[in-house]
Each structure stands twice: as C-alpha cells, then as structure tokens.
Amino acid sequence: MTRNLHLWLIPLLPLAGAAINGLLGKRFSRTVVATVANVFCGAAFVMSVWVAAKFSSLPTLPYVETVASWLRSGNFSIDYSFSLDQLSLVMLLVVSGVGFLIHIYSIGYMWEEGGYYRFFSYLNLFMFFMLTLVLASNYLLMFVGWEGVGLASYLLIGFFFLRDSAAAAGKKAFIVNRIGDCGFLIALFLIIQRFGTLDFERVFDAVKPYAAETSGVGFLTAIAILLMVGAAGKSAQIPLYVWLPDAMEGPTPVSALIHAATMVTAGVYMVARSHVIFERAPSALMVVAIIGALTAFFAATIGIAQTDIKKVLAYSTISQLGYMFLACGVAAFSAGIFHLMTHAFFKGLLFLAAGSVIHAVGGEQDMRKMGGLRKEIPVTFWTMTIATFAIAGIPPLAGFFSKDEILWRAYQASWAYWLVGLATAFITSFYMFRLWFMTFFGEYRGAAGASHGHEEHAGHGTHPGRDESLARTGAPPPHSQHAHGHGGIHESPWVMLGPLVVLAVLSFVGGWIGIPGSLGGGNHFDKFLGPVFRATTPAVNAEHAQAGESAPPEQTTEGTEPQTEHSTEIMFTGISVAAGLLGLFLAWLLYHRRPELPGRIAASAHALYIAVANKYWIDEVYAAIFVKPLIGISGFVFWRGIDQGVIDATLDGSADGARELSDNLRHMQSGNVRSYAGWVAIGATAVIAYMVWVGTR
Amino acid sequence: MLPLSYYLVLSAVLFACGVTGFLIKRNIITIFMSIELMLNGVNLSFVAFAAKWHQLSGHVFVFFVMVVAAAEAAVGLAIIIALFRTRETLNIDQVNLLKL
Fold first, then answer.
1. Which residues in chain B are contacts of A674 at CB distance < 8 A?
2. How far apart (Å, rounded) are the C-alpha atoms in residues A123 and A131?
3. Non-local CB neighbours of A91 within 8 Å, separated by 6+ positions
4. Which ipTM value was assigned to this complex?
5. Which of A31, A194, A267, A275 fits A231 for a cystine, CB–CB 3.0-4.6 Å?
6. How far apart are CA A381 and CA A379, in angstroms?
7. Residues of A495-533 as b/e, b for ≥16 C-beta within 10 angstroms?
8. In this complex, do B96 and A666 lie within 8 Å of one another by their Cβ atoms?
C-alpha cells in the first residue's frame, strides 16, 4: 500500500461529534452544540472530497484499507476494513455532502426545540453508521452500519418521544426493519456457509465462476432473494414499506436526511453492491424488478390523496425507491445509483423546503391550510419549484435524466416495466404539482399564522381542497412540532435557506453528468461506475462486456447499438417528458384552474377515492393479519404460557421448595443444648454403624 | 488376668451411662459429670488395650486425656459460675437463647 487515505477517519469524525454532544452537550449552549456537530460532520465531508480528489491516482481499485482484525475463528476471519471504489465513492459524496447540508439546515430548523444536543448527537451518530455502511469492505461491517442507521432512525423518528404517535412510529420502523434484517442475516449465513467469507471481493471472486441460474432456483437465487428481503425492509418496498410514512413523525430534517436521501437508499446500494450475485440469479432480479415496479406505482397512487405535505413526500420517496429497484432489477445498476444520487438531491431538497414551509406557517402540515405562499416565502418557493420540476422529470433537471435512463433500460427488459414506470412518472408529476399548486398558489387558507392549526374545523370558505376532507380519516391530526409562536408567515433564516439553494443548484445540474448518448451527452456517470458493474457480468454477457469498454456511451452493457436505437430512445424520452407535462397540466387544471373539479371527481369515483385516501387499508390489513394474532399469541402462549407458566413457574417453584426445606431444617436449631447433644449422639451412632457395617461386610 | 472383654464391656457401660446422663439430665453440673464419665470410660479402654498389647502409647494417651479433662473442668466450671450469675439457674432447658 503506497498511499494511505485513512478512510477510517471519515466515519469516526461524526462519531466523535456524537460522543462529545451526547456526553457533554447538556451543558453546552446551542451555539456550541451546533458548532461541534457541524464541524465534525463538515470535516467528514471535506475528507470525502479530499479522498475523491485523490481517487484517480489510486493504483488499484477497489482500494482496501484494513484497520484491525475483528473476528477470527478457524479459517473464517473478518477485519475492520474499509474499501473504496467508484460505487462507494459516489455514495460517500452523496451521504456526506447531503448530510452536511442537512446538518446546517438543522441549526435553524431545530433552534426552538428542546433536546437540541440530543438531536445533533443522534444526527452525527447516524452519519457515523451510514458512512460505515457505504465504506465497509465486508458484509458484516456493512451489517453493523445497516443496523446502526436503523437505530439512529428509531431514535430520531421518536425524537418527540412525549408524543405517543412518534414513539409508536419509531417502534414500527424498528420492528418492520427487523423483519427485513432477518432476511439479510440469513443471506449472510448462507454466504458464510457456502464461501466461508464475508469479504466483498472474496465472495464475488468465489461467485464469478458460477453460471447464471437461468433454469430453476439455486443457492445464489436464495441468497439474492434474502438480500432483497433485507433491502425491502430498509428501503421501504412492498410489502415492508409501511414504516416509512409513519416515520414522518420525526423532525423534518430527519425525514430529509434519513427517510429520503440516505438511509432508505441503503437497500439500493446493497443490491447494487451485491450485483455479482444478483446477475447470476435472473429470477431474483425479476423479483427485484417486479417489487420495484409495483412499489413505484402503488405508492404513487397513494400519494395522490394525501393531504399532509410530508406524507405526500413520504409516499413519493417510496415510489422513487421503487424506481431504483426497478433499475436494479433490469440489471441497470448504474442507472439505479444515478437515480439514487439525483433523488438524494431533489428529495432532500423537497423535504427541506417542506420543512421551511411548515416553519413558515407555524407548524401546520396540512396542505389544505396552505396556499398562496409563493409571495411570502419566495426563496423556498423557487427552490421547491426546481425540486418539483426535477422529480417530475422535466428536462433539463436532474430527475429527468435519471428517470429517463431507468425507463429506457426498463423498456429494454420488458415493455410492461416501462409501462408501469411511465404511469408512475405521470402520477408522480401529478401529485407533486398538486402539492406545488396547493401550497404556493391560490389563496392562503390557513388561520392567522400565530395559531398552530388547532382549530381544525374552522370553515375556511370554499377552498380548493374541499374534497380532501374525506381523507381526514387517513391523515394524522396536524400536530405542532413547532411550538414556537412567532406569528405571521415568514421566510426561514438563511442558515436554512442556504442548504436549500445549494441543493436546488444540485437538483438542476446534477443530472448533467449522466446525459445519455442519444441526447448528445457522454453519460459520464455510467462510464464512471462502469468498472464496478461491468467487470463482473456473467459469462453469457462476456462478449458484451468486452465490447462495452470501447463502445459509445449508454449502450455499454448491451453492446454497441446502431444509430436507429438512438432515435427510438429519443422517442421514449419524448413520451416520458410528455407524461410529466401531462401531470403538470392535470394538476394545474384540477388544483389551480378549476379547483371545484377534484371534489366532483372524488364524489363520482367514491369507493376508489376512499380506498386511495385510506392507503388501501394496508395498515389495517397488516394489523388484522399479523399484529393482532401476534399480540394474541404473545399474550397467551408466550407470556402466560411460557414466560409465566414455564420460566417463572420453574424459578418460583424451586425458590418455594428451598424455603420450605429450610423452614423444616431450621427447627433443628432450637437453642436447646440437650437436643443438640441428641443430634450429635444420633450422628455419631450413624457414623459408627456405618463403620461397623463397612468393617463387617 | 482378666480377659480384655471385661474391661471393654465396663468401659462401654460407663460410656453409655455418660451419654444417657448427658442426654436426659437437665442440671448442668450433672451433665458436666456425665462428660467426665464418658472420658473415663474411654480412658479405661485405652489402658486396657495398652496392657493387653504392652504398648506405652495407650498410657500416654490417657495422661493427655486427663490433662485436657482437668483444663476443661476448670474452664467449664468457670462458665457454669458465670452462667449462674446471669441466669440464676442451672437448668439447661432455660438456657436457650442461642437459636434462630
């Protein structure tokens, strides 16, 4: 190793910040707490940039750095080791960059809240685990980060732990994630059992000789599907997505950082990281693609009828994560990671801007009580506009390129994927512009800014979102995260707006590094990640991989494609842009131009509307099928039966027996000397009798 | 010379008298005397065996037992006096504070 990058420092810096704030922060002033947290997080970001600058001069990739030995058992060993390749570099920059911006934003957003040091300590702790996750060079260290971000997520969702709903949401997230982690763990056991190692490079080297399991289901498929279960838990895919909407109970910067930009994309990262295994298990890939496509579409439809601004964004996040899985499922891993990156920018921005809106209207989260805010909070409005156009896939913003790339690659796999993706793109555009119109246009429908939405049923005249009152059952009551009472609608301070502007710029230009060849770009992103994903494609694609090295951009995995393919691609690009614009038009028509229409539509399709507004009753179904029986079984079998009946009974019984025995024995100690003498005589007699018996035998 | 068994039977009878007295008597002086009786029963068997086998160690042992018994008598009587001063009784059944 000629050069030492000290990768271990990157995760350790935020951990130091978390320790300082967590242990001593109670005595610090808010300024000191914020400074400590941001300095350590910023240092991690600066270091990541430094590593990125050194990246091109690294002699071999992946660059592995072993800090210490961790576990040793026979031939099996695991080290604390970090590795860096193109994939983890992208993740590293996204996580530390977006994380740092959100840290800055939090200074302003959380200023009025109690537990300021606790918040920043958790936030830094999250950064530590997330950076460990992306830098780990073996599955076990990755799993440590994986569980750690789950812990940080739990702590931050339940940050306002005095509110029952927040505590319950934290528990829900944790428990649902456990189900996924169980799959992940079993996958790890299978890998150990089969290959005797968890080191990425060695596992993948061991997997490479295997041919793709095209017929039947082999152990690679089993491993891949179990890994997918883990990813589905962490990345909120069907059927384990239910925790993410509830996770919006956390403070908004947390939603932006953990539940939009970074943690929930860990599943996508893990699947992309394990692509060697997935590529050899086509049926598992198909599962990934189908789950991704279904989730994308399903979550998007729920997003249409949500009225809580954060819930819309939550379902939108689930939907976009579905896109990423769809990309991974059609073996377009670099497209998935590309979308992950752009999504981190625009969804992080959307959440932060939503937080700024919530801040502006004094803690109100219900979009029906917003409206006409574009004049009052212009910076938030413009940044959110960029993010909305980006997620809707309007060129030339970031979301357009990544989404288009995924749709095109999905089409190459199957037209059904493409159709679902296109429908999702249209719905996404529709509900995002619905949010945009309801929040920033029309008349302000909220009460005077000072009152924090406590008067739910104060009639606000005939406001456009009238129909949404049907959705009230599905939406949580507006809660006041913001107890601070400065009245009136006001723009956020610059410490919050700064990150918004930076992210807006990134959401604008972030896609330009991956402009596909058909639009005259170089698709540099795809080429940059190429060595990670292409060097290891299964034997069946070997000649394509060869061709890919020198082929024109974009078509690298598919081999060189003729020019006609480009015109087809442009046509598909046109269709997806049209879908986005159609969504914009429809939202404009329904929520700006003719605000009475949604009510009538909802009334005519009443049953459907109710189903969507109630999120298809998935939570209720899960409660009936899984939660209630589980609580029942736990109550009767495990608690009363096993815990009380067996474990407690054994302990209590032996304790009672011992007490009874000693109760009887203590009567020997009567204090009467003659009875003692009697016991001595009996004992002596017994000993003598025994000796006589032994002697005469 | 008398057979050994005569001495041993006498020794056993003395010892049994001592044990019985120790167990059934309530007066602590009597109990004390019973102990002496047991010791002397044992002494008798020691000297009987010593005479039978012409071994000196039996006699030596008896002297040891006598010395210890004398010391024990001195200490024991002192305890009895102290006991009588505090409790004003020699009935052993009334001296039963040392219990659970």
1. 22-24, 26, 92-93
2. 12
3. A134, A269, A337
4. 0.84
5. A267
6. 5
7. ebbbbbbbbbebbbebbebbbbbbbebebebbbbbbebb
8. no
> For residue A313, what are its two tokens?
């964004």
Contact pairs from chain A to chain B, CB under 8 Å: 30
Task: Give the pTM.
Answer: 0.76
A501 sits in which H/E element: helix A494-509
Task: Supply the Cα-derived Rg of chain B in whole angstroms.
Answer: 17
Would you state the structure tokens that stand for residue A630, as one six-digit string? Answer: 């589980």
Q: Which chain A residues touch B24 with a CB distance below 8 Å?
A: 674
**Block means of pLDDT (10 residues each) for chain A, length 697 residues?**
76 92 88 91 93 84 86 86 90 92 91 87 94 92 93 91 89 91 93 89 88 78 92 90 89 89 91 90 90 92 88 92 92 90 92 89 82 84 91 86 88 89 91 89 68 36 36 38 55 86 89 77 78 61 38 40 68 86 86 78 78 81 85 86 88 94 84 85 94 92
The answer to whether the bond into A476 is cis (omega within 30° of 0) is no
| Residue A6, amino acid | H
CB A109 within 8 A of CB A355: yes
Pairing of strands A63-73, A76-84: antiparallel
Compute, in degrees rounded to 10, the torsion defined by CA atoms A10, A11, A14, A17: -100
Contact B23 A670 (CB under 8 A): no
Q: With contact defined as beta carbons under 8 Å apart, do A124 and A37 qualify?
A: yes
- Interface mutation target, options B15, B17, B19, chain A, most CBs of A under 10 Å: B19
- Scanning every residue of chain A, which has its alpha carbon at the shortest distance from the alpha carbon of B24? A674
A633 touches chain B (CB under 8 A): no
In the prediction, which pLDDT does A373 show?
83
